[in-house]
Every structure is written in C-alpha cells, then in structure tokens.
Amino acid sequence: MKAMADGPECFSLGSVVCCKTCYDQVIEGEGLAFDQQTKALMLKCASSSGKANVSDIRMVNLNFVSELTVKKEAGSSQLTPPQPLNTEKLNTRAKQNIDERQRLAAAISAGVSHDGIRLFLAIRKTIDDVTWQGKNIIVMNQVTIVPPYRPENCKGKSDSDASVLHVRKIVEKHLRDQQKQSQGTRQTSPTQPSTKA
C-alpha cells in the first residue's frame, strides 16, 4: 500500500478522515495507508469493543464513498509505525462476517421483512449469538422470535425465563427507537406550501 499522500486525495498519512459510504454509513479514523490502484483506504478507528487500548482497522473502498472530509490534518511529528496485525484473528473475523452476511442474505431470500432484518441487526449490536432459522430469529439458542417480531413473539422454555425477558426488553427498545425515528422523519420532512388562487 502506498501512503495516502501518493494518491489523488488531498490528505496525508496520519490525517483523521471521515468517510460517508453510499449506504450512509459514517466511518471515521486515522488514515494509515492508501492503495491507488484499488482505491482502498486503511483507517485506524476507535475500538468497537469500547476498549481504549485497542483499535479497529477498517478497509474502505473509496469507489463506494459518497463524501470524504478531513477532520484533522496529520501533525508534523514522526508517526509511529502500526503494530503488527494478527492475521489469523483477522481471517477468523473475516470468515465470521462473511458467514453472517450469507445468513442475512439467506434470510432476505426466505422473505424476511425489513422489520425483521432491522430487529436482527439491533439485537446483534448487543448480543453476538444471534442467527436465523428460516424467518425466525434465534438468540443465544434459547429465545426464538417469530414474525411479526414483536415482544410477545419472543418464545423460550418459559415466558418468565431471564433470557426471554432480556430479549423482550431489547425488542421493546428497538420498536421505541424505530417509532421515534419515524416520527422524527415525519416532523423534519418539508411540507408543501398551500397555494391560494
């Protein structure tokens, strides 16, 4: 990979950049490297685990970036080289992500609604052990959520089981967040001015 300064982009190695993908996903991090031929940008981002002593390394294909801004220019101080990457761990994580995307694609092709997919992704943010079984969401191999993906559709060994109650709370919060988001969208949408003749 070349340093980003070698590319056509107007930022240098060590700059903090913010990328908005064509899917409206915002990725911010320190630029580590840039490959001109593939338009691949390597960013050092804050850890998704929340740990302060580790970072996530993200690869961004600039062909799929709709907006790129420089948040902070690189300092003139000498940059320390990045720590070596654990390629075995990266390969394992890549395989897990590919498997997850394939399961998500299978769920979509099985006819899962957008609401079900959004709920699955919301649960996945909190609990790693979430899979699909046809149109059903399986959480921790203990709780099954069936369409239409409401709190009352969460089933387990018993309705008073702690895992069922926990998943119901996640579903309730997700539905509240979705409702707030849709209300906010309606309130911020422009209204048509009335015309009087």
From TrEMBL:
Signal peptide feature range: none
Biased composition (Polar residues): 180-197
Ranges where the AD domain occurs: 83-179
A Pfam family per the record: AD
Cross-referenced PROSITE patterns: AD (PS52001)
Annotated InterPro entries: AD, Lsm12-like, LSM12_ABD, LSM12_LSM
Region (Disordered): 174-197
Sequence intervals crossing the membrane: none
Lineage top rank: taxon: Eukaryota
PANTHER family for this protein: LSM12 HOMOLOG
The protein's name: AD domain-containing protein
Organism of origin: Rhipicephalus microplus (Cattle tick)
